[in-house]
Each structure stands twice: as C-alpha cells, then as structure tokens.
Amino acid sequence: MKKRVNWRPYIAGALVGVLATLSVIVSTQALGKTQFLGASTTFVRAAGFVEQAVDPEHVKKNPYFLKEKVKIDWQFMLIVGIFLGALAAALLDGSFKIEAVPPVWRERFGGSIGLRAVAAFAGGIVAMFGARLADGCPSGHGLSGLMQLSVSGFIALACFFGAGALMAALVYRSRGGAR
Amino acid sequence: MNEQWLGLITGIGFGALLQQGRVLRFEKQVGAMLLRDMTIMKFMMSAILVGMVGVHLAVGSGLAQLSPKATQIGANVAGGILFGLGWAIMGFCPGTSVGAVAEGRWHALFAIAGMIVGAALYAEAYPYLEKNLLTIGGLGKLTLPGVLGMSAWAVIPSLGVLFILIFVFFEKKGL
Prior knowledge:
With 179 residues, chain A is mainly alpha-helical.
C-alpha cells in the first residue's frame, strides 16, 4: 500500500530557499550588507535589553554584549516577523490551537504544566548556551550555513542532530520498549 | 527601505512558511530526533537545496556576498552537542519557538525564557571561553568547495542528488 506523499514540508521548504535568496539579494542591494536567515543572536540582544533595564553599567562592560551589540537590528525584526507571519498563517488556515502541554510530552510525562515549564526552561538554557558557543542555531548554521556550503554549518548541524537524537532516545522512549 | 522594515517583512514570510510547513510543532522536532517523522528534515533540506543554488547564483552575478561563519572545531562541536541536548528537552529551536507561541502553543514561552537566560549566561562566560575553548581548532571561514578544491557548481549538484535520494528514502520508509 503506497501512502500519498505529503508535499507540504517540501513546498514550504523550497519557498524558504527562494525567500533566503531574495533576502540576500535585496539586503545587499538595499542595505549594502548581505543578511542571512538566523535567530539565536537575537536572544543575546533580548538578554541585553533585560539586563540593561536592571544594570546598564554591567551590559556596557560585558565584552560579548559589546561584540554582538544590544540593538533592534535586521535579525531582531526577523524574529518579530516570524511571530506575525506564523500567527497570520495559523489563523487563516484554522490551525491555530491553544496548547498548554505538547501531546508527545504528555504521553511520556503526563499533563503537568509545571513539569513541562521547568523542563522547557532548563532545556532552553542549555540549548542557547550551546547555540552561542557554536555561533549559530538550526537557522543560522543549518539553513544559512549549508546554503553557503560552510564547513562550520555541516559540523554544527551534525552535532545538533546527533546529540538531539541521543537525548531524545534517552528521554522519550519509554522503558520496556512499549513503543 | 531601512534594515528593520526589511527584516520584519522577511520574517513575516519566513514565519508563514515555517507555519505552513508544520515545522513549528514540538512533536515534529522531537519526532525527527526520534527518527520517526522527518518533516523538519524534509523542510530544511528543501530550503537548503533551493537556497544553495539561489545564493550561489546571486553571489556569482555579484548581487550578494557569501558570509560563512568561521569554522572553530572546539566551539562548533561542544556548542553543537550542548544545543542538541537542550533542543531535545525543549522541543523547539530559537527561530521556531517564537512561531510556536504564535500558533497557540504558548508553552513555548518557557523555552523562550530559558533561552534568554542561556544567552545571558553565555555573555558572562564569554570572557573566559574566549581564552580557551574558543581558541581550539580555529580554521577560519571554510567552505566545502574551498576545502575540496572544487567549484561550488561541482559540489551543489552532488549534494542535490544526495538530498533527493534521502527524500526518496524518507518517503519509502513512510518517515
């Protein structure tokens, strides 16, 4: 029995390839600086803004904030755009759904929002520390890195998925091989 | 047009496509890591397939410049592994977390809060890391064609064929 191919991820992905191409051309022509898709540097800037509100002197002295510059730049607005674009698309096709605990998580760990919150928060800390150390995330290293055939992109993406698969197998596969 | 508007418009397109590709969801990201559902791989590899042709055509015609990230073996590997470990628990990557909240999966807010804290901790650690881990295996801005001594136009079709074979494999296995 042959299942019908779901073309959705292929078509949407291919269009991201078109978008990335248009983006590098338009940004180079309009801004004089080629902009590639990326996301994780924006979290550094967001952290910088939060810290600035508490202790501006500390942010001014930190070499990493000085290097990445705490400002609303192209990528920061890209992230704001991702939110708006995803919201519009989800509302238009009716796939918007309020969800407090992801179904896969619920199956393994139950419906506690508190447990999910603690895990997501801790996972987020580790992942972002790693992304900044690696100098990119699946967008910057994965998409933009591989589009440019960058060696660092291949190395980082292999490590992302390798370590992700290992951790996922440890965490989500129930003992006794129920699945 | 200024930098911020251009970023916003590009992001709206990116967010809509991420949402339509159905890759913003926890189950799709963890599904790929469990090797059960390759939706995000299909999406990423399709984007890379088209994007590597497009970007290299744009660069070849002088319309854009390549800007590859430097290869730093120590940091790329250690950071990549840390990212992967956290990613599996969090179930989102930095770009998709924001889109997931927009889709109604508000639990991604906890992941976003964690990532902002992670970025802040990295900023504190950076002065120390700069002197050790970040100095290991620094090889500069390497690209695959550069390392292989080949033209990008020899590498791109080979990778393209490989990606398509992987797509055929995914579909045959119903992944």
